[in-house]
Amino acid sequence: MSVPVTTLIDDPIARVLGELHERLRHDYRGEVSASIPTLANADHKLFGLAVCSPDGFVSEAGDVDVEFSVQSISKAFTYALALSDRGREAVHEHVGAEPSGEAFSAISLEEETGRPDNPMINAGALVTCALVGGEDAREKFARIRSLMEAAAGRTLGFDETVYEEEQAASDRNRALAHFMRSAGSLTDEVDPTMEVYLRQCSVLVTTRDLAIMGATLARGGINPVTGDRVFSGEVARHVLTVMATCGMYDYSGEWLLTVGTPAKSGVSGGLITASPGQFGMGLFSPKLDARGNSVRGVAASQDLAERFQLHALTLPGGNLPVVRESEERWPEFGAGVVAIQGDLVFASMRGVLAAMEDVLDSTDRVLVLDLDRVTRVHAVGEKILQGAIDRLHDLEHDVVIVDGARRGIVTGAVEVETLDAARDWLSER
Amino acid sequence: MSVPVTTLIDDPIARVLGELHERLRHDYRGEVSASIPTLANADHKLFGLAVCSPDGFVSEAGDVDVEFSVQSISKAFTYALALSDRGREAVHEHVGAEPSGEAFSAISLEEETGRPDNPMINAGALVTCALVGGEDAREKFARIRSLMEAAAGRTLGFDETVYEEEQAASDRNRALAHFMRSAGSLTDEVDPTMEVYLRQCSVLVTTRDLAIMGATLARGGINPVTGDRVFSGEVARHVLTVMATCGMYDYSGEWLLTVGTPAKSGVSGGLITASPGQFGMGLFSPKLDARGNSVRGVAASQDLAERFQLHALTLPGGNLPVVRESEERWPEFGAGVVAIQGDLVFASMRGVLAAMEDVLDSTDRVLVLDLDRVTRVHAVGEKILQGAIDRLHDLEHDVVIVDGARRGIVTGAVEVETLDAARDWLSER
Amino acid sequence: MSVPVTTLIDDPIARVLGELHERLRHDYRGEVSASIPTLANADHKLFGLAVCSPDGFVSEAGDVDVEFSVQSISKAFTYALALSDRGREAVHEHVGAEPSGEAFSAISLEEETGRPDNPMINAGALVTCALVGGEDAREKFARIRSLMEAAAGRTLGFDETVYEEEQAASDRNRALAHFMRSAGSLTDEVDPTMEVYLRQCSVLVTTRDLAIMGATLARGGINPVTGDRVFSGEVARHVLTVMATCGMYDYSGEWLLTVGTPAKSGVSGGLITASPGQFGMGLFSPKLDARGNSVRGVAASQDLAERFQLHALTLPGGNLPVVRESEERWPEFGAGVVAIQGDLVFASMRGVLAAMEDVLDSTDRVLVLDLDRVTRVHAVGEKILQGAIDRLHDLEHDVVIVDGARRGIVTGAVEVETLDAARDWLSER
Amino acid sequence: MSVPVTTLIDDPIARVLGELHERLRHDYRGEVSASIPTLANADHKLFGLAVCSPDGFVSEAGDVDVEFSVQSISKAFTYALALSDRGREAVHEHVGAEPSGEAFSAISLEEETGRPDNPMINAGALVTCALVGGEDAREKFARIRSLMEAAAGRTLGFDETVYEEEQAASDRNRALAHFMRSAGSLTDEVDPTMEVYLRQCSVLVTTRDLAIMGATLARGGINPVTGDRVFSGEVARHVLTVMATCGMYDYSGEWLLTVGTPAKSGVSGGLITASPGQFGMGLFSPKLDARGNSVRGVAASQDLAERFQLHALTLPGGNLPVVRESEERWPEFGAGVVAIQGDLVFASMRGVLAAMEDVLDSTDRVLVLDLDRVTRVHAVGEKILQGAIDRLHDLEHDVVIVDGARRGIVTGAVEVETLDAARDWLSER
């Protein structure tokens, strides 16, 4: 009998995170934030890394259980809530979606509209705080906190001291708020808006929380651990989009080039990053670079991105042709088979339909469409495929769908689980 | 015999493009560019739409064969060539990657470095023109033109009149060039750099060309029609990244929110957009909005994006679990099977390895790993998987890979095409 | 007996003002400020013009007795008080003296120091409000009001409604205040600073008041009507200097070119301008141009400036040589006479001393220095002259000063009122 | 016999300059300009100071004969020539008059007009170079050089090496020129404009030249040494005005506060300053401060300004009432005397006319107006006085003017040289 393989699954992700932790924990570059005493006194040696898979497995290394104030990372979730409450158009009447190429506390507003550039800078987050539904500051904040808790999958603490310190150091943000009120982009009162804004920053999270919150975004709004839907897939997409271009302040462009995934950093040293369908990641290390991003967090992200090609625009290798098989299979039943594999995406549908026509041209009237190896169905694929099936029905062709998972990808056709079952169905009718 | 299905494949993409063309051709908003006489006299009624699939099928509608000067869309390809010639780091020593939130002709340079913000604005493109390899302006331009021709898959014309008009109206760009020379970010002489820059703008393309050039980016640098590699996958990713945040000038953020794919527009009314692995698209309509983007081009893109959810950060539906099957299948051979499907991505590898361990725990020593339904292999998946296979060999386990396409996803293991063949191999050894 | 000359002195200044009033009152260009209801509802037909001479005569035309809130014109006097309380260096640690070339509400602070550009824009005036001495907002404002009253020579009203409206519309200024607190240039609390700032704006003045307040600046800090010193000559000079470059917002440069005197405008339509030693002027007309300056106020000022060459840098004509006479007059007493006239200025002293030496070379030992026609003595003239007199005493020369006004321009010399008296003195000693 | 007084007139101005030279020559702060080799290699120990009085006496200390390139100081004279050639309005269609609060090489243009801020920054000077009359660059430059020579009173050299070095380092200015051509504010070709601009900078001057050139401005356009009129008084006033607010770059405001006279500095370390009617000054010391102004030049100017209160807005002391005497003097002739002294300025005319009326009320019909002690006649004084004299003639009053200098201040009246002569005239008619 062979050696046990326990070391095999010794979670390869966790192992990589562990290696990174070991290597980077000696990187003492940067400075902790001096913005408030609690941050200025943070233990700069802390360093946590966690990854959450779309199915909810968390891999981790370092100080993943240490709590810290979420700070600006909350902006992504407050924006999510404002979008959920008001819709994209109403939200973006008051805040832009353009990267500013400026620092987090930039004071510039759009010339004609008076809108702050985007929801990831302070000015924009003040606006989204005001747009969140709720009678008053208390209720607005309670709803933001609830949404963050749903995304993290647990009850989150609140740091009253941080909140008070933030209030005492809030002049620049108050300036932004008054400035936007004078420009008309902030319609709420300044004081309650500041309260919501500063409270959302004072919620306590761990590195593990951030990983799961990121995975919630990566899963299109569903927390992969609890299975709860926290916000819609559309909201998740909007949030990730704005994080992609604006989440790392004036480092956003270079981040996207070297890491390539939507991300958001906070002044306490937290960093969240997520890739749709792939992963959520949380990083935490208090020392910041000149742009206000966690030094080790950025370094670890860049290492992981390069090592594993996590870039959201990377073209994966090993691609298979979308049409796996296309043949007149069972002439006795006047039937042909078209087998599809991989992703049903926009542009590939032309090839799929061409294959379907070829098979039908050489058979009598039955199309067996094998979707068993279709792993992802983009909306457009579904739509175009459904249109073709409907058309075939109009032309009095029969269609049999093979899908072991019975996903109901198209409607109005016989669905069976295997090719053998399809043959049985053909022989029996 | 049934009715012929010709209308079925009546290319659904082309049909949608045709509908859009019909609807939007009455949209007369915007103004043609007045920057040079040729553009000022352009026929504003022209409107072309084309989509190229990753396997090289082109669907189209409208005036897809009309030639127009490529203008700023060339910036994406000159950047690609500079990256190919010099590498990312050397290029970005001289030009940033940050969205500027400013107009195409913005004159701002980075305070400390003197770099222009990014390669998609005029200032940045002047820098990339200078960085392209070549003895002189003639050679540099010849190489840029060749690369565009390789991406389009045909010989492209050159509009001498446009070039001369551009020279006559080049004061602002000359100002940028001198400005950058004084700041040290442009190291070449101004005159030859202007020549390369203005010549690249004067190359003639059609809407169909743009679709294929886009598909070349979407295919990671391989022209899907000719099959030629034009630039590396890494270069394609860099170009798409910078297009994503900077390609639509100060509309980039809203474009990304409402369309969600990397894109680049030109002052002649051309627009190119691409999604990795999904499609390349070309659009052409001379009237521009206030930000200098084609009015109909933007409208058509937004319609298509919404209708087909083309957004690059959209989470597709119909996802299947990555581990399709995990069982002790052939106890007689001390073997178990783990069947994987879909994409091998970063975070999902933990689940894959866990399944592998589970199976090996309950079998003697042989793992049959069925990769036949794996449609895309991300680098990380390959890496982690290979690491696990190597580990199993160290532990003296045998591994049999099943892959009908014999893609060689991992090395050092027996590879067969079917599960039956795997069983045969087990029985024979 | 001849016709009475009453019409002669029919105050030529008043007549010109009357003509201007008649001509410009039909100029309806511009808009009243919409910043607060009281201003929005102002009677735009109101138009007042007043000039106060350095000796306290007021010439006027139009609605010179109508009260309006002083608004930004108060900034000049609050700056004067801050200078009086703290000195120039301490004040300018917190606020610059550079024209910003920007609008009144510009939000830009100096990059390194965080100082607002100058005390004539809102941000700078908030700083000077904070720098004014006083225990609290009440006392600070009481002192500012007192200083304005001393400059106007009467008790000034306060518009409580305006103050409340300003408070309700103070978001942008509150933004500036918080912004500067965060930058460290404003060290007081925001609320009391805002109170002082908004109260100083709500003091009620008339056009006549402005003329007298201007004359107080023109007279080096002495109210020419009451004779009271309101602030020092040095403070007056600082205030006029900053008014000269910054008082008319982003129109300051063109104002200086076309009018050429220090000035300050307010959003209620008031305008004050002053020329050292020449005049103070008040103008009032509520409709403002795009830069926020009173349309008729600017037009009237430009007309007067051109007609009467009021520009502060105009070289006056009719200049007489500074040395009127230089001769050996009374050889019997070994005495010579040097008669000086006009202004004793820096560069002309060389000629004066040369004349003194010439006379002494040809006489024995007595210099009679006739200063009776010296009308203005610049500090440098006094200093250099005193130095020469002292030197003559060291050399045992006698000096007799002739000055009908017995001004005591130099000390240590015999002073008589006439040349005859000088001769008497010579003959008697 | 007393000690000779030679040391008395030992030019007090020169003595002060000598003391300053001695004290400041050990001030080694700052850096010589590195913009071109010639400047980088300048002897930083050089230090010259010169003052020219309005009557053409030059006092000096240090290296006043050393030649250096005039650099940006030429901007004041090119502006003067453009004004002379085109008039104020035509010039300022293309260049503003607003202080920019920015560095000399600022690239900002006015948003709506595309004009550079003012003629004292590089961009603005390029425009004035283009506006100078002349067929081509050669002629334009020749005319600028001639004007500078007329202002200096001698033939000026030209440094060909400096010109060539400037050409080689002209990228930023070329950028400005192309930028302005694209904005429409520069209408000439770039190359000839650059040639004129760079040539004007390469003219050689000495510190003494600068003092005389400054005195030419201070004398309203008349070179006080040669007596030649170089430009009009109006042009001199415009130039001084723009120098006052824009001549010292982003130090202009503080310069005006601490020195208070119009000035212009150059990158070679030259500095020119002038006060209307008072003096012209030249300073030269190559080491520059962070704003590009000569360190010792600024320090010396501040010392002199404080010591001698040279500030243009200083109110001089020793003022005498404008009406010296007003009495019924010769009742036998039905005549009264009004004696005026000092300056006839705008606001003081009311008092003068009131005195005239008082005297005429108590006499029969003759007014003797003694102007002998009037030292300066402002345009407005002359105008108002003439109006009153005309009115008296209409009323059939006789007027006798007493003016020893027979300046002809008013017309249409008998003019005599002394009061005795007036009495004789009265008795004889």
TrEMBL record, chains A, B, C, D:
Output the GO biological process annotations, alphabetical, semicolon-separated: glutamate biosynthetic process; L-glutamine catabolic process
Q: Name one GO molecular function term.
A: glutaminase activity
Q: What's the catalysed reaction?
A: L-glutamine + H2O = L-glutamate + NH4(+)
If you read the UniProt record, what top EC class would you report for this enzyme, in one word?
hydrolase
Signal peptide residues are none
Q: Gene3D superfamilies in the record, alphabetically?
A: DD-peptidase/beta-lactamase superfamily (3.40.710.10), STAS domain (3.30.750.24)
Amino-acid positions noted as binding substrate in the UniProt annotation, renumbered to this chain = S72, N122, E166, N173, Y197, Y249, V267
- Write out the entry's keywords from A to Z: Acetylation, Hydrolase
What InterPro entries does its record include?
Beta-lactam/transpept-like (IPR012338), Glutaminase (IPR015868), STAS_dom (IPR002645), STAS_dom_sf (IPR036513)
Taking every annotated instance into account, which residue ranges of this chain make up the domain STAS? Answer: 334-402
The UniProt record lists the EC number as 3.5.1.2
Q: Which Pfam families match?
A: Glutaminase
> Record's NCBIfam families?
Gln_ase (TIGR03814)
Its assembly, as annotated, is: Homotetramer.
Q: Which family does it belong to?
A: Belongs to the glutaminase family.
Record-given protein name: Glutaminase
Q: Which organism is it from?
A: Microcella putealis
Q: Give the gene name.
A: glsA
